[in-house]
TrEMBL record:
<dbReference type="Pfam" id="PF01408">
    <property type="entry name" value="GFO_IDH_MocA"/>
</dbReference>
<feature type="domain" description="GFO/IDH/MocA-like oxidoreductase">
    <location>
        <begin position="149"/>
        <end position="278"/>
    </location>
</feature>
<protein>
    <submittedName>
        <fullName>Oxidoreductase</fullName>
    </submittedName>
</protein>
<keyword id="KW-0560">Oxidoreductase</keyword>
<dbReference type="InterPro" id="IPR050463">
    <property type="entry name" value="Gfo/Idh/MocA_oxidrdct_glycsds"/>
</dbReference>
<dbReference type="InterPro" id="IPR000683">
    <property type="entry name" value="Gfo/Idh/MocA-like_OxRdtase_N"/>
</dbReference>
<dbReference type="InterPro" id="IPR036291">
    <property type="entry name" value="NAD(P)-bd_dom_sf"/>
</dbReference>
<dbReference type="GO" id="GO:0016491">
    <property type="term" value="F:oxidoreductase activity"/>
</dbReference>
<dbReference type="GO" id="GO:0000166">
    <property type="term" value="F:nucleotide binding"/>
</dbReference>
<dbReference type="Pfam" id="PF22725">
    <property type="entry name" value="GFO_IDH_MocA_C3"/>
</dbReference>
<dbReference type="InterPro" id="IPR055170">
    <property type="entry name" value="GFO_IDH_MocA-like_dom"/>
</dbReference>
<feature type="domain" description="Gfo/Idh/MocA-like oxidoreductase N-terminal">
    <location>
        <begin position="21"/>
        <end position="139"/>
    </location>
</feature>
């Protein structure tokens, strides 16, 4: 995907671009380290940090100096002269913060998921476009060079006719994970949508990447969605779920996820062809190509950092990797999960607490997740008696 650089926004390539980071704790720590890496290369300069409670000197990585700090995002953008804002704050705050930046002509790297509902996503995307600023959505897996390489393999017919795309994520999270913030594990907080579930937040990359490889990224590429949402933990949202997306091209996309794995492993996406398959471990940028008449081929790829890509796009028109339009189909999945009935509570005999690890485990879930990705079937179709299917409208309006 690419977007034109708005008139008058091109950056000089010889000056480090000043930026503000909103949300510097939790996952924001990863952004701090990445900003330090790019600052060392002279690409960006951390001008400010927006947090409700200022970071201590010990929380700021060495080499980033003493950036200005404030809990007032708009005022901080004004006082620092930031040209880019990296937004890594609670999901319900994304749209308002993005529009605050856009109103000041500040370009954006917005963490995934971009919004908790399709309406909020649309408000953000339309507002950013009207303001003439550029927004990159933080699906880091879509910066992998493996993605265009797999698309090319599909186009060349390397594995024959494509039957569908599966995704599998078997992760583990301790019970304390859901106590990390007031919104953690919530579907709503104080009447505001949050939708912090397995498929929409920690394993959202599996959904977005599977859709990208299926060639279904725009809203109109989705014609139907079925969801099965459940939880073993004492939370509102889902921790063990699957979704089947029917695409306009007729290829199903099935993604299964759990945060209650027996043996956590790297998530992956698999493209099923009638003469082979392509498996992509997106956190490793590693691809396994298996096809008729050939031995298995393992391939490793590089990755383009999304913040660096945003700066390059603004400097010289390099194609933007993940504009909002590239996440419309993903946001349709978020909307389906938002409007689905509340997740099913797994019966007591379907899970147990793992001694010493403070986490709940669903016996057999690892195999169920893998089977869903392998067969493009939902949990209920694989014999999970606790699974409840919700079919969403075949016609998904835009």
């Amino acid at each position: 995907m690419s977007t034109a650089v708005p008139t008058g926004t091109a950056f000089p390539t010889t000056t480090a671009v000043p930026l503000v980071l909103a949300g510097a704790r939790g996952h924001g720590r990863w952004h701090l380290e990445n900003i330090r890496r790019l600052q060392d290369k002279g690409i960006v300069r951390l001008a400010g940090i927006c947090e409700l409670t200022p970071l201590t000197p010990a929380e700021i990585p060495e080499g980033l100096g003493t950036p200005e700090q404030s809990a007032d995002f708009g005022a901080l953008l004004d006082s620092t002269g930031a040209r880019i804002a990296v937004v890594c704050t609670p999901i319900p705050t994304h749209t308002d913060l993005a529009l605050t930046a856009a109103a000041r002509g500040v370009h954006l790297l917005l963490e995934k998921p971009p919004a908790p509902s399709y309406a909020e996503f649309r408000r953000m995307a339309d507002g950013v476009a009207e303001a003439g600023v550029v927004c990159q959505i933080g699906f880091q897996s879509l910066g992998s060079h493996a993605v265009p390489a797999i698309r090319e393999l599909i186009a060349q017919g390397a594995v024959g006719e494509i039957a569908g795309v599966g995704g599998a994520g078997a992760w583990a999270r301790p019970e304390s994970y859901y106590r990390r913030a007031p919104w953690a594990g919530k579907r709503r907080l104080n009447g505001v949508d949050v939708i912090d579930g397995a498929l929409t937040n920690p394993l959202a990359h599996a959904v977005a990447t599977a859709l990208a490889l299926a060639g279904a990224t725009r809203a109109e590429d989705v014609t139907g969605i079925e969801t099965e949402l459940a939880h073993a933990n004492a939370i509102e949202s889902d921790d063990t779920s699957c979704v089947r997306i029917t695409t306009a091209g007729g290829r199903p996309v099935v993604v299964a996820a759990t945060l209650c794995a027996e043996d956590p492993d790297d998530p992956y996406v698999v493209v099923h062809g009638d003469r082979g398959r392509i498996t992509y471990w997106y956190k490793q940028d590693r691809v396994l190509l298996q096809r008729a008449g050939h031995g298995p081929e393992e391939l490793e790829y590089g990755r383009t950092d999304l913040l660096e890509n945003l700066v390059e796009h603004l400097a010289d028109g390099t194609a933007l990797l993940v504009p909002p339009a590239a996440t419309e189909a993903f946001m349709r999945v978020v909307e389906a999960i938002r409007t689905a009935p509340d997740p099913v509570t797994l019966p007591d005999d379907a899970w147990h607490l793992l001694p010493g690890e403070d986490r709940r485990v669903v016996p057999g879930i690892d195999g169920l997740v893998a089977a869903a990705a392998d067969t493009l079937a939902l949990y209920s179709e694989l014999g999970a008696t606790w699974a409840l299917t919700t079919a969403h409208p075949k016609e998904v309006s835009t």
